[in-house]
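Tutorial handout. Part one gives the primary structure; part two gives the three-dimensional structure as tokens.
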Amino acid sequence: MGAPLIVTSGEPAGIGPDLCLQLTQGAQSLVVIADRELLRQRAAQLGLSVHLHDYRPGQPLRQDGLNILHVPLHSPVHAGRLDVANAGYVLEMLRRAAQGCLSGEFAGMVTAPVHKGVINDAGIPFTGHTEFLAEVTHTPLVVMMLAGGGMRVALATTHLPLRQVADAITRPLLEDILRILQRDLQRRFGLPRPRILVAGLNPHAGEGGHLGREEIEVMIPVLDKLRAEGFDVSPPLPADTLFAEHRLKECDAVLAMYHDQGLPVLKHASFGEGVNVTLGMPIIRTSVDHGTALELAGTGKANVGSLLEAIKVAEEMVQHERT
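Part two.
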């Protein structure tokens, strides 16, 4: 058996620990990174009987429970109650998991949700997992892609205010994004010649320049260049008809220009079972498609479906990369 995946348990006051405690089926190929006592306490609160074993690098994983890489909390946790004192704990888990992936100790990482607000409230600038992991892995550009509902939707821009999006989409950025998307679809999803549909930025993809010229001046030159190199990429397409079933059947991924252009459609089709995938990094990383759900923490009502799907996708990516 190769290196295991590592699952980060996310915001300790949220549902991340609850979800990790539900991973005992098939957990022999997983390591969960968390505070050991936090998991014990949450298991007791949920009425779960789960064996927690200390993970030791290089030693065989136990198969009768969860293998735990212990990182100590900075402050006691109450389910559903955020505490800025634990912001550093959350980032320590992410950093340790990423470093383990870079060294080959872990085959890839799967992340439970974090709470961006409480990390920022602690005085630590933090815009999300994607940007943090890009910094830790020294990756100049990463691509956020969500998979679910029979779709893969990648984003040219991620967590930007809408008024900044048009200026952010330049020819070099769009070309780099598409090269990363093409490479990782080939290398980690086993698609020799991925078919990519590209959404226009403006309504009706600019209506021939009458509703904006970004398609003409920025997008089409890049897409023509890549098509001449053998990429199977569409011209800019109107986003309001791009997600029609007959179009999706003809593609392997969609590239949307901004966060709320592509993700509402995918999340409508797959909420609770979607997977966030970070492309472009030297490590494999997938994540759930939902937040910390503080109101559900410790109640036993958290749905583990998205985390299980994220693990499944990470395992498939590992297999493709190994072949």
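Part three, for discussion. The first helix runs from residue 16 to 20. The first strand starts at residue 5 and ends at 8.
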